[in-house]
Amino acid sequence: MTNKNPGAQLRLQRFFGQNETILLLVLLAMVTAITAVSPRFLGPENLFSILLSASYTGIFAIGFLLVLVSGGLDVSFTAVATVAQYAMGTVLLANPDISPALALLIPLLVGMALGSLNALLIHYLSAPPIIITIANLNIFFGLLQFITGGEWLNGFPEWFDHFPQTYVLSFENADGVKYGLSVIVMIWLAVAVVAGVLMHYFKAGRKLYAMGGNLEAARRAGIDILRYRIFAYGFLGFCAGLGGMVHTLITQTVVPNTLVGHEFDVVAAVVLGGASIFGGSGTVVGTVLGVGLLAVLSNALTIMKVPTYWHEVFVGAIVILSITITTLSALAARNREKKYHAQ
Amino acid sequence: MSDFIAMRHVTKNYAGVQALKDIDFQLKRGEIHCLCGENGSGKSTLIKILSGVVKPDEGSEITIDGRVFPHLSAHEALEQGVRVIYQDLALFPNLTVKENIAFQSFSEKGSPMVSWNQVEKTARGAMSLIGLDLDLNRLTGTLPIAQQQLVEITRALIGEPKLLVLDEPTASLTRKEVNALFEVIFRLKSRGVTTMFVSHKLNEVFEIAERVTVLRDGERIGEYVPSEIDHKKLVFLMTGRKYESALPSPVDPLAPNLLEVKNLTRNGEFTDLSFTVKKGEIVGITGLLGSGRTELALAIFGMTVPDSGSLLLEGKAIKPRSNSDAKKLGIGYVPEDRLRQGVIQAQSILDNMSLTVLEKLKTTLGLLDKQKMKTDAQTWVKDLQIKIPSLDSSVKTLSGGNQQKVVLSKWLATNPKLLILDEPTIGIDVLAKNGVHDLVKKLATKGIGIILISDEIPEVLSNCHRVLVMQKGRFVHELVPGPDAERDLLENFNLS
Fold first, then answer.
1. Does a structural domain hold residue A1?
2. Residue range B288-298, pLDDT digits in tens
3. How far is A8 from chain B (nearest CA, A)?
4. Structural contact between residues B452 and B424, judged by C-beta atoms closer than 8 angstroms
5. Residue A22 CB neighbours (<10 A)
6. How far is B80 from chain A (nearest CA, A)?
7. Would you call B142 and A201 a contact, using CB atoms and an 8 Å cutoff?
8. Sheet of B61-64, strand order
9. Region of B423 on the Ramachandran plot (φ > 0 left; ψ -120 to 50 alpha; else beta)
10. CA distance A337 to A8
């Protein structure tokens, strides 16, 4: 490269050194490689199905990102999601004629309430978030099992059953089966767009980054820490409720232990997306790409008939690999900036 | 010039302890005013009252621009143009320079959205006030400390500041950066901004202050014009004690060489360094930060491996490959960053003192000999005159000077032959500083060889037998402290 315009060159290097760009390139490389091995992979039918099955993880991940950016941590969201599922499922079975809007509002409110409870406890006990949310994971989930007796819920109203088959784009395959881009995927994308705009273009979003970067400085700058904690954890609660709802729409059953125990998949996706576990950094685009990458990986392994326990090994390995790349590229970026600014 | 701020009868009691006793304090518009005093003299309390963080007792009175306040709220202080920059910077390392500078605008009422154009404009405008030129999109955490401080000062310039309070701003700056900071202060002065400056480095006080107010034990000792007092007088005013610093006792000319460094080179850090340290000799190394001083120390201490050259300790070639190697050889290193590398803040004084000699404190069963640990520590506390509440208190409860003595005792416990002290008195009170200096000189008389690294010229000149000047990784000068030494260094090497 020429050195005629070091500023422009630095900008270019910054762009390609960015986590999101790297992730996108890795994702494209993976898709190409998998397609070469198994051409069936790249078909629209498979891609739509990957998106649909990744949607609730994707929604959880965006909520988790906000909490992480604000310098917090919350591992109770799967339990919150399950509680929200049961609340919605129970109401639906008891009043099958309830208006769909009202029924779908229930999990969101339950989620926000439990998320805010996490925020209040963390704030007033000034306790490490991980401890509070592990405790609440156990409390929420334990009480749920006690109250419901671990009973499975199914047989929801017809509109509920048909909801996921509402397609934004729809096609028919060779066997005459309808498939397409489900409205559920659009819910995920809508949450992502809202969160992305909020985090970059709204003062509230910038304050979350500030809190995650230096909490004491945020306090001195006059940020109402409690308010923004409730905002972040409440938003994750909302996403947990929404993700739980989406999960129920896809599976049409409510089961106590399909979500709890899978928190790590979400954490992995968000960290893979470039968010720092210590707070203050991470983007929505990165998070969406992180979720996408893990979904593609898991789908490819399934297509290639690799046993499921290998999926876990791969997820773990890819997280370590991504952190290695992030560390190395941060180091390179630092040296580059130093060199540029020394000139 | 009229009084811009006048504080009258300011008193503050904390649970029966009088932090401030009936203080009168005046600031004139546009002046540079230094506040001097030891730790615990009430400087911080006075600053906090001025910035509205602490509420003074009944009867206190603060007049700003003719308006009288019994006390200020943080909001009122901001409104009156008071900006305080604390020692621990309040920046967001994960945000860009422009966002840090314009951050306060996010708290203003109005649109909930961020106007990035406005953020950039605000940041650029504020930076131009002090002639700062930084990449606005760079993450603040990737900047050197000195530039981060300038970012914080720039942030303080938003919204018409009238008074800038800098609490120990130069503690972690190099001389060149201090000069740049002073230039900024002069620029602000020309715009009518008043600066209140707190520093332990008295030479800086004399360099920049137009007036000095001295506090001692919560009382106002007086207000002085620097040209009318000298260094010794100021120390006396601050401490209430006369202090004569003794030169180090001469080295025995027959003393054998303890350390010989021959043509030591580590690419990119230092080149072809040769020098010796005799038993009982204190060798000073000075030079700007980045001159390779610390890098040299780390190589002798085994933390890095030199590319070429050799080290001899008591005539035998040594090649320390780790700090534990160096420790076994009898080399101790007191790092520059006391808070992070010197002590373990949260642990007790006892644990900190025993850290380097845990192997030696084993009982026959291999367990820690708590009793010996305690008696040893008590001996150090007595020998080094460390002021502590108890051995079990955590190190963070101690003042800087006493913390540094804990670090020293930890290394003395290893019975070192050579001690490397990297900026041993940074951020330490005048009197405590002298305590550390006395201790260093006493250690030398016991035959320990000492390398004292410092960029404070008076410190090396009054405590060392010989001084080496480093520039860009090389020794460029060697001198023996004498009457002309300070001028020599100042004129030839742009050090002060």
1. no
2. 767 888 899 99
3. 13
4. yes
5. 18
6. 17
7. no
8. B17-28, B3-14, B61-64, B67-69
9. left
10. 13
Q: How far apart are CA B12 and CA A127, in angstroms?
A: 33
Q: What is the pLDDT of residues B341-378, one digit of tens each?
A: 777 878 888 888 888 888 777 777 778 888 888 888 88
CA distance linking residue B232 with residue B139, whole number of Å: 44
Residue in A70, A211, A214, A228 to test binding to B, most B beta-carbons within 10 Å: A214
Say yes or no to pLDDT of A3 above 60.
Answer: no
Tell if the CB–CB gap between A221 and B135 is shorter than 8 Å: no
CA distance B93 to chain A (A): 6
- Report which of residues B242 and B412 the model is more confident about: B412
β-sheet bridge partners, residue B63: B6, B68
Structure tokens at B51: 């910035």
Q: Do B112 and A203 touch (CB under 8 A)?
A: yes
The verdict on B16 touching A (C-beta cutoff 8 Å) is no
Of residues A203, A214, A220, nearest to B93 (C-beta): A214
Contact A213 B95 (CB under 8 A): yes
ipTM associated with this complex: 0.86
Cβ-defined contact of B107 to A209 (cutoff 8 Å): no
Q: Nearest CA to A77 among A124, A134, A148?
A: A134
Taking the Cβ of residue A212 and every Cβ of chain B, the question of whether any pair is shorter than 8 Å is answered with: yes
Cα–Cα distance for residue pair A210/B93, rounded to 1 Å:
9
Q: Which residues contact A63 (CB under 8 A, 6 or more apart)?
A: A77, A235, A236, A237, A238, A239, A240, A243
Percentage helix, strand, coil for chain B under 3-state DSSP, each rounded to 5:
35, 25, 35
| pLDDT tens sequence across A154-205 | 999 999 999 988 888 888 887 878 888 999 999 999 999 999 999 999 999 9
For an interface test with B, the pick among A198, A206, A231, A283 (most B C-beta atoms closer than 10 Å) comes out as A206
Q: Measured between CB atoms, does A209 come within 8 Å of chain B?
A: yes
Cβ contacts of B107 on chain A, cutoff 8 Å: 203, 221-223
Cα(A247)–Cα(A88) distance, rounded to whole angstroms?
12
Among chain B residues, CA nearest to A217: B90
Short-list B345, B341, B415, B354, CA closest to B381: B354
For chain B, domains (ranges, CATH) are 3-239 (3.40.50.300), 257-493 (3.40.50.300)
> Residue A86 domain-assigned?
yes
Residue A17 lies in a domain: yes
Taking the Cβ of residue B104 and every Cβ of chain A, the question of whether any pair is shorter than 8 Å is answered with: yes
Decide if B90 and A222 are in contact by the 8 Å CB cutoff. Answer: no
- Which of A187, A229, A241 is closest to A79 using CA atoms? A241
Cβ contact B140:B96 at 8 Å: yes
B158, B122 Cβ separation under 8 angstroms: yes
Which chain B residues are within 8 Å of A218, Cβ to Cβ?
92
Coil vs helix vs strand at B233: helix
Does residue A230 sit within a domain?
yes
Of A207, A216, A334, the CB nearest to B106: A207
Q: A343 at the B interface (CB within 8 A)?
A: no
- Whether the CB-CB separation of B373 and B350 falls below 8 Å is answered with yes
CATH of the domain at A304: 1.10.3470
All residues at 6 or more sequence positions from B492 whose CB lies less than 8 Å from its CB, including other chains: B477
Residue A196 contacts B, CB cutoff 8 Å: no
Q: What is the DSSP string of B277-309?
A: EETT-EEEEE--TTSSHHHHHHHHTTSS--SEE
Range(s) of the domain holding residue A221: 6-342
- CB pair distance less than 8 Å for A209 and B95: yes
CB contact under 8 A, A206 and B99: yes
Q: Name the domain count of chain A.
A: 1
Q: Which of A86-90, A167-171, A263-267 has the lowest mean pLDDT?
A: A167-171
Closest CA to B140 of B148, B149, B132: B148
